[in-house]
Amino acid sequence: MSEYARMLSARLNWIVERVVALLMVLLVLDVWIGVVDRYIFHWQLPWPEVLARYLMIWAAMLAISAGIARREHIGLLMLISKIPDRFRRVIVLALDAVTFALFVYVAWYGLAFAQTGANRQAMIFGATLFIPFLSIPVAGALCAIQTLLVALRDQGALREPSIAGMTE
């Protein structure tokens, strides 16, 4: 079960990291267009700043699950590493359970949040805010899934990402 969870976690993380990288490329291009517009061509395009905001939100929200897959929360790792080994496994499992519950909550209530975005208009694009607001439940669901997979993969053991098989 641990090996299967490791494989699923690594595959899901691989996909998410590529999506985040693509969003970051689009963000850089969008900001570049905004700079060229403002200082060279003076087209006064209204959309680069708004699009950059939504791309950044999506990239940041999705990147959370990549951090979970690698257990890269430096503050939490520093705290857990100070706990005696005999208690560490239980505490890591408890933290994984609380984290999983939090992200299920975020995903569930994020759906209602995204639905409210369907009734609101983005002033620049004339489209609804459903897609930008959808980043909350999508990221919450991905984080919940990744937390479950990481908990199954590690089974309470605090491991380095390379030992846990996340170097792919």
Give your account of this protein's structure.
This protein is an all-alpha fold and 168 residues long. The chain has one domain. 76% of the residues lie in helices and 0% in strands. α2 runs parallel beside α6. It is elongated. The chain starts with a helix and ends in a 14-residue tail after the last helix. The C terminus is likely disordered.
Largest sheet composition: none
Distance between the termini: 19 Å
Number of strands: 0
Oligomer: single chain
Beta-strand residue fraction: under 5%
Protein name: TRAP transporter small permease protein
Keywords: Cell inner membrane, Cell membrane, Membrane, Transmembrane, Transmembrane helix, Transport
Function: Part of the tripartite ATP-independent periplasmic (TRAP) transport system.
Family: Belongs to the TRAP transporter small permease family.
